[in-house]
């Protein structure tokens, strides 16, 4: 974004690694949560295996909240299950991913899926972060009235009455 963030929230990203059942992949990775603040652990510190699942602290990200995105944050909070979008970018080496972004804006999270190369998943939004997002929405959300667009005189086939569909 080009605008200055109102609030920047540092977070730590936790990911899980599952053994894959595919002949083409060894493991399946997915973000599972964020930690409020920056842990003192180094990125890719193992947090512990539970059966076939290994959990890692993958690194840090920063959630930036902007005044202009207050409506998107409001929609996220109003969904009943507020989420954060975590974006992991493949490195092609070890460690397998870097934390590219963490966002509370659903539109921005969706936009990260367009390239098709990043791993983009939602994780539950911690209550502390939800409260910060609520404050931004309360201070900066502006209800915009809905204006119904008026139809023009074009016919159903797209041609203006008496015209020849835009031909001179």
Overall shape: it is: globular
Overall structural domain count: 1
Low-confidence parts: none
Describe the main β-sheet briefly: 4 strands, antiparallel
**How would you write the strand order of the largest sheet?**
2-1-4-3
Structural class: alpha+beta
Q: What is the quaternary state of this protein? A: single chain
What separation lies between the terminal Cα atoms?
A: 44 Å
Q: Helical element count?
A: 3
Q: Over the alpha carbons, how many angstroms does the gyration radius reach?
A: 22 Å
Helix content: 10-25%
The total beta strand count reads 7
Roughly what is the average pLDDT, rounded to an integer? 88
SSE order, one letter for each helix or strand: EEEEHEEHEH
Strand proportion, as a percent range, falls in 35-45%
Descriptors for this entry?
168 residues, alpha+beta, four-stranded antiparallel sheet, three-stranded antiparallel sheet, 3 helices, 17% helix, globular
Task: Describe the structure in brief.
The protein has 168 residues and is α+β, with helices and mostly antiparallel strands.
What does this molecule look like?
By secondary structure, the protein is α+β, with helices and mostly antiparallel strands. The chain has one domain (7-140). Helix content is 17%, strand content 38%. The chain has helices at 70-77, 106-111, 127-140, and strands at residues 7-19, 27-36, 45-50, 53-65, 83-90, 97-103, 119-124. The strands form two sheets. A four-stranded antiparallel β-sheet has the order 2-1-4-3, with helices on one face. The chain has a three-stranded antiparallel β-sheet with strand order 6-5-7. A hairpin with a 6-residue loop joins strand 5 (83-90) and strand 6. It is globular.
């Amino acid at each position: 974004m080009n605008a200055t963030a109102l609030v920047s929230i540092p977070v730590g990203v936790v990911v899980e690694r599952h053994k894959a059942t595919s002949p083409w992949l060894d493991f399946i990775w997915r973000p599972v949560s964020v930690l409020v603040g920056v842990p003192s652990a180094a990125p890719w510190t193992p947090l512990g295996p539970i059966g076939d699942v290994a959990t890692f602290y993958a690194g840090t990200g920063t959630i930036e909240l902007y005044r202009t995105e207050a409506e998107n944050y409001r929609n996220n909070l109003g969904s009943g299950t507020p989420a954060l979008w975590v974006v992991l970018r493949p490195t092609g080496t070890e460690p397998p991913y870097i934390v590219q972004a963490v966002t509370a804006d659903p539109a921005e999270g969706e936009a990260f899926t367009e390239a098709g190369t990043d791993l983009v998943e939602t994780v539950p939004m911690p209550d502390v972060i939800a409260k910060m997002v609520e404050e931004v929405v309360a201070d900066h959300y502006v209800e915009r009235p809905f204006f119904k667009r008026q139809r023009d005189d074009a016919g159903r086939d797209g041609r203006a009455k008496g015209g020849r569909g835009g031909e001179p």
